[in-house]
Every structure is written in C-alpha cells, then in structure tokens.
Amino acid sequence: xxxxxxxxxxxxxxxxxxxxxxxxxxxxxxxxxxxxxxxxxxxxxxxxxxxxxxxxxxxxxxxxxxxxxxxxxxxxxxxxxxxxxxxxxxxxxxxxxxxxxxxxxxxxxxxxxxxxxxxxxxxxxxxxxxxxxxxxxxxxxxxxxxxxxxxxxxxxxxxxxxxxxxxxxxxxxxxxxxxxxxxxxxxxxxxxxxxxxxxxxxxxxxxxxxxxxxxxxxxxxxxxxxxxxxxxxxxxxxxxxxxxxxxxxxxxxxxxxxxxxxxxxxxxxxxxxxxxxxxxxxxxxxxxxxxxxxxxxxxxxxxxxxxxxxxxxxxxxxxxxxxxxxxxxxxxxxxxxxxxxxxxxxxxxxxxxxxxxxxxxxxxxxxxxxxxxxxxxxxxxxxxxxxxxxxxxxxxxxxxxxxxxxxxxxxxxxxxxxxxxxxxxxxxxxxxxxxxxxxxxxxxxxxxxxxxxxxxxxxxxxxxxxxxxxxxxxxxxxxxxxxxxxxxxxxxxxxxxxxxxxxxxxxxxxxxxxxxxxxxxxxxxxxxxxxxxxxxxxxxxxxxxxxxxxxxxxxxxxxxxxxxxxxxxxxxxxxxxxxxxxxxxxxxxxxxxxxxxxxxxxxxxxxxxxxxxxxxxxxxxxxxxxxxxxxxxxxxxxxxxxxxxxxxxxxxxxxxxxxxxxxxxxxxxxxxxxxxxxxxxxxxxxxxxxxxxxxxxxxxxxxxxxxxxxxxxxxxxxxxxxxxxxxxxxxxxxxxxxxxxxxxxxxxxxxxxxxxxxxxxxxxxxxxxxxxxxxxxxxxxxxxxxxxxxxxxxxxxxxxxx
Length: 802
Known about the structure:
The protein is an alpha+beta fold. The protein is about 50% helix and about 15% strand. The strands form three sheets. Strands 1, 2, 3, 4, 5, 6, 7, 8, 9, 10, 11, 13 and 14 form a 13-stranded mixed sheet that branches. It is a multi-pass membrane protein.
C-alpha cells in the first residue's frame, strides 16, 4: 500500500512538472532562508555558552546618576581590589581590553624583526584569576605561573605560530604598541568563534602597575572617579550563592569606596550570558535584531507554504476526475488525504535538501559579505542536536501547513461531481482563498520594502550628516613615544609636507567610541557636580586641526600637563550657566587637578549620531598623546600620506606604521546597522521572488477559470487592454488591501525601531508609497506573461474547449 502511494505520488509530480518545479523552487528558497536565519540566531544566542560555569559568571557594571541615568560595562579600576576585600568568597578578576594592538617581534639582540597589527579587541590585561572564571585551555604553562610577573604575555597558539613560526615562543620577546617589551610565558588555545572575549593575547595585569607612565597604567588604577568602557570586572559566584545577597554587598561596597559620591554610582551584577544582547550595555547583537530576523524567517516560510497552497488548490480542479475515479473504485477520504500529504512530503523533502545545500554552500560567502568571516560556518555542526530538531520540526510544520488544506479539499470531492467535471472554484475555496494568501504575501513584501528603505535612509543620514565639524580630510597615526621633543619636531616637519594643513597630538579624536569619563568639581564647590565628563587629552592645536568652533574665551596654552580646560556647551547647560562668557576663568577640577576654564566650544557628537551630545572637556597631558591627527588639504591624499609615512619612519624606524581616516572610524559605529541592512535587503528580494511565484500561480489559475469569459468578451469586441484590465483590477485590488495593512504596521514597527536613535529620520508618506510602487512593478512583470497569453488566445478555440 505504501509503495503504491509513493509510486502514484512520484508519477503525479513528474506529470505536473511546472507545478512541481514552482513549488520546489519556492519552498527551497524559503527553507534556505530559514536555515540561514537559524544559524544566525544559533550563533548569536550561544555566545560564550561554552564556559562550563556560564550560569555563575557575572559582570560588574556601573549605573551613573548624574544628568539622568546612564550605563556602562566599565567599572572604576580599583573595583577588583574592593571586591576581593569585601567579597572574598568570590573569584574576581579585572580585565582591561585593548583595541587595534601593534606587536613587534624582537630578536635576541633586541631589534625588531617582524611587525604585526591585530584588529579589534584582540588583547587584554588580565590577572591569573581570569582563567578560573573563563574556560581557555592551556597548552604551555598555567595562569598563575605565566601571568604573576610584570612585563609578561601569553599568546594563543595561532598567534604564536604567526609570530614565531615553528620556533619555541617561550622566553621570546614582543613589543606592544611600540612601547612595552614583554616576555612570552605561556600558550593557550584559540578563543571560540562565538565569544565576546575574543582575546588572542593576554598581558599580565602587573605590567600596568609596574609601568605607571604607560597609557593604561599610573594613578588611574586606584582612582574611583573614572570609568572606562574597556575596564571590566568579572566574578564567579560560589555555587548556590544568593544573587540578592551579592547585590546588597555591592551597595555597601559602593558606599564605602565612593565616599560622598556614592549616590552618583550604582554597581550591579549582570549575568555575563546576557551581555551580548543588552542594548543598555552596548551588546554587539541586541535582542531586537534577533526578533526581527526570527520574524522574517517565519514569514518567509509561511509565504512559501502559502504559495504551495495556492498552486495546490489550483491543481485540484485538474485532479478532480482522478479523485473521482479513486473514490468510485473504493478509495476512502482518508486514503486520498494521505496520498496528497505524501506528495507534499516528497516536494518538501526535495525542497529541504535543495534549500540545505543552497544555505550550506552560501553560508561562508554570506559571512564574508557581512564582514564576519569564519563565524557562521562554525555553527554548521552536524552533531548539533538543535540542528536536527529544527530540521525535523521545520519539515513537519511545512508539510502540515502546506498540505493539510489542499489535501482536505481534494479528499472532500464528491465522486459523482468529480467524474462529471462539475467541480468548480466554489468547491475548492474559490479565488477568495488565494486572494487572501496573495494579500498576505504582498503585506510581507511591502513591510520588508518599508523596513529596507527606513534602515537604509537612517544609515545614510547618519553617515552623511555632520557631527558638528568637518570630518573629511582628517587622518590619524599612532605615535610610539609621546615625548616633548618628538612631538614638537615631528609636527614642525609634517607641516612642511605639501598637502598638510595642520597637526595635533592627542589620545582620542573628537568623535570616537573610545572614551573615558570622570567626575568633576566646578568653582570650588564643596561637592562634585552630578556630572560625568568625557575627557579628551590633547595639545593646543587640537581644535584648529579638527575645526572645532570656539564660542567664548581662548584656546588652552601650550603645556606638558594640565594648565586649563576647554569645555563644550553641554557642560554649561548642566552647570546652569547661560552665557559661555560667564564660564571663562572659573575653576574646574578633573583628576584632582584644579585649573581655569579657558574656552567654551560649540557642541558636537562625541560618539556618533546614534547618541546625543555628551559633556566634554579638553586638556593637555602629554604623556597620553599617543595619536597624531593630520589635517589634509591636498586632493592627492595618497601621495601626502606616503610622505607622512616616510617622515614617521625616520623618527620610529623600529615600529609599525598604520593610518586611519576619521570618516572610516565613524562609519564603524554603524557596522551593525549596515550588516542588518544587507540581510533585510536580501530577504526582501527573496520575499519578492517567492511572492512572484504565488502571484504567477494565481494569475495562471484566474486565466484557466476565465477562459470562456475572455472568449465571449473578445467575440463581443473587447480589445487587448480591456482584457488585461480584468487581471489588472484584480491584482491592483489585492495590492491596495495589502497596503492598507502594511503601511500602518510598517510605520509603527519602524517608528519604534527609530526611537533608539537620538538623531533620526522622519517616516514620510513617500516611503510608504514607494513600497506600493515596488509591489505594483513586481506584480505587473510577474503577471504580464500569463495575462497577455490569455488575452491573445483565439476566442473560437477558447469557447470550443471550455
């Protein structure tokens, strides 16, 4: 019996090749998208879950109560000491992340023999306890032995091989950021792909203590008033420990160590496994994007199933006599239903195999295209139980969703009507069902088009809008040794290069995601202000190099240390000062250094246009000036920067040169939005493709049902445009109904999405109507062939065969 079912199903699929191909094409594309979405979500939601104690790992965070409430992953640098003192039962470790590290491999004579640049957060200063919290297998040595001394570094196996080849790296030396010479004391495994701790080199925390003049070291390690995003503290709670008890201990700790300022700071323990999705703490993949991707994947599967229903019910009329014969010779309703469900299962099986192949082959290319090479393919693990559960569940859901209704319709045919050929659209749900399914597909298409346009326009707006000064023609280069002689002479000689208009030394550019904030005291008041201020260490050429606007006062004087401050308008707003002139000469204390306010600057965006304007103070502290900004006037930027590189090499021949442009640095702030925009664009095109298949099926069905009507109209004198109008009105009505649903829904969804951006675009009626135009264009192209074909059919033939 089962063999007979399969034989008949196979013959039916071969006999109706176009029907089979269209269904397999629609389902396979939908299933391929569902798999890509599954791997995307699986990759994003399993970040750091390989740590065996992930449920007990917590990150200490900071909540500021100054001008409103703000949040940071960072903590004051001495937090780890306080926690070990006040909460000794916890395993606690401080981790200070470093971005874009330069490494030079040194020979036995101390000379540089190789140079490398590691992108992203590839290095961290850690304590031995870090490896008691996070799981990273040691290949050579151990944490306590390798990281207990200053000026030591542990490398991952891949980085060790990259730097030293087949030579034994233990005991060899590398130079970090052109400043610190470090001894290699251990080798660990590579971090997992799905990890928010992607470090491949670990420098002992004691290195910072032993090198107070280094940019991350010094007195800041004991300062409770400053918080940097990269200064993070992790703790492993004892088994069975009550988290509420731990939070109470943190409150007491804050009161004790923050002193009179404790009301301005709250510290919380946040489960580390939640940080990857936390918008509050700048997680790399907020849950809203996970939900959006999940919804898109589900909608694509549903619309592919609706295509199947559309075409299957259209085929039902042609198969009515077949069903009648089966029932006349004793076939039951149940057997007919099983027969059709088996056909659906075969089509779904072929589509799933095709879709899986498409997704598997394209996945590495998708990862590269999205700028995440090597990430998603790691999730294609055939031993992953969740993958097989997902595939099995998807198979049964698609078979039931796509096959149950058409199967029920076919099984319900009365044999007498079927054999006489009297089964009509009324018996299979009529065109109204297909109209509803097509409307759903049009709604999805228009929603995706609206989302694509809004996200695209928002990204374009952020990239093209001014952050408060001109960012084009501004380049930055790293300076290995921020001493006075090198800075002065290097600047003088760089100004002699044709195409260089100005130069300045600093630690952070005006707009950057790398920021430090600290508390501030104004005008000798007894208490610090309820204000966190972003600090910009820079020389007195900073504002002219970057084109910042001075509203009142004058520039800070040339100096090696803090002699005065420049603040922006936002600071004055918080202090209640209405006129910029009134702040000039007032005393300001930052880092416990009291000095006058020299000038007030016009506001600019300190991070990106996603956020609002921050409080900023600029002052000179030459020991931290590890970056040189170059303002370019020449159109031949490449030639000018080549001359800058040659000059740099004369001063620092043993170090590695690398440059960046401010426009590129700002663009990285919108990397997530660009990634999601690419995905939404792609899924929009796929949704349109699947929708086209469904619309083609509807038009083909309409043409077959209106053959006689079209013939009569042509005999009575109807022309081509009149005949095409029959189809045009039908399709136009469906698109119009879809628009009435999609427009308010799309506006609501995208308006909610835009609320996360301080600077955002409006959603005007033009964006909504573009979605209709796109749908009309796609529908017109899709329906054109079958519509014209039906309109040009000889009416005599149509009337004779009907």
